[in-house]
Amino acid sequence: MPSALIFGGSGKLAKFITERLVKKTYTVYSVIRREEHIPGLYELGATPIIQSLEDSTVAELAEVIKSSLPDVIIFAAGGGWRAHKDPTFNRIVDRDAAIKVFDAMVEADCTKRIITISTADARNRSRPRPSWYNEEDQKVSDDLWTTLPRYMEAKLEADKNLVEQNMTRTLDYTIVRPTWYNGGGWTGKITAGRVGMSPKVSREDVADVFVACIENHDTIGLVFEVVGGDIPVGEAVRRVAEEKINSFEELYR
Ligand SMILES: NC(=O)c1ccc[n+]([C@@H]2O[C@H](COP(=O)([O-])OP(=O)(O)OC[C@H]3O[C@@H](n4cnc5c(N)ncnc54)[C@H](OP(=O)(O)O)[C@@H]3O)[C@@H](O)[C@H]2O)c1
């Protein structure tokens, strides 16, 4: 049976990914911080593992990976509600915990494949705006970087670390960059690639994107945006893979 290990498994997006993978007969290991999430995760069919990312060393996270031997690792954690109160959690979770997971994968030396959650507009803002942005995208970008600068910086630095250190880590990564979640339900449709920031997208549709990436190895090494749209998720991800959309150089350098 295939298996997946989700770091930040108690999150809203992570639980939608879990549901989908369990339906596809994956064994899903779910790394979480708080015990209160255990019953809900068992109900979804996952195996919870209590191991707080921020309180763990790389060696401890490597042990978690070695003890579960997953085919694929998903990083879906985030500073979330704690970061709203104290933005330090953006650095602690969105950046540092992510980087610890990348290093732990190297130390564990058993799983190469990782799909990580970033955010649309994590980019080097001293460069001109991306060529595919329109005025509305620019406005959303300005708002994001004004209201959540430490969040945006944390995601940017985690993504940069993953890509720039990969000559030595040699992981099979994909970086998914959704725009704002809209709180809506599943539509099964999105637009993906170099697509800017609008319209918003549902977590359920982004969960489908993660599953499509797991199933499409041609997404390895790609970095792409996801917004709401009208293209079935599998097809949208297939196009990204065929066109080898990798926005890293334009966005992050
Ligand atoms: N909101 C948006 O519009 C938007 C847009 C694009 C991308 N994103 C990103 O999408 C991702 C998922 O979003 P979401 O809405 O599903 O977030 P969420 O519900 O806040 O989930 C984040 C999860 O990370 C867990 N976590 C935090 N610190 C941890 C630690 N030390 N060890 C283990 N787990 C830990 C949290 O657990 P606790 O609750 O126990 O802390 C929480 O379950 C986030 O990275 C977010 O930044 C969000």
Could you characterize what this model shows?
- Residues 8-216 form the NAD(P)-binding domain.
- Pfam families: NAD_binding_10.
- Belongs to the avfA family.
- This is NAD(P)-binding domain-containing protein.
- The chain has eleven helices and nine strands.
- Helix 3 packs across helix 5 (88-108), helix 5 (88-108) runs parallel beside helix 7 and helix 9 (203-215) crosses helix 10 (233-242).
- The chain has a single domain (3-252), classed as Rossmann fold (3-Layer(aba) Sandwich).
- It has a nine-stranded mixed beta sheet, with helices on both faces.
- Strand 1, helix 1 and strand 2 (27-32) form a beta-alpha-beta unit.
- The model has no long low-confidence stretch (mean pLDDT 97).
- By secondary structure, the chain is α/β, with parallel strands linked by helices.
- The longest helix is centred in the middle third of the chain and has 21 residues, at 88-108.
- Helices cover 47% and strands 17% of the residues.
- Bound molecules: NADP nicotinamide-adenine-dinucleotide phosphate.
- NADP nicotinamide-adenine-dinucleotide phosphate (NAP) is lined by residues 8, 10-14, 31-34, 52-54, 76-78, 80, 82, 93, 97, 117, 119, 178, 180-181.
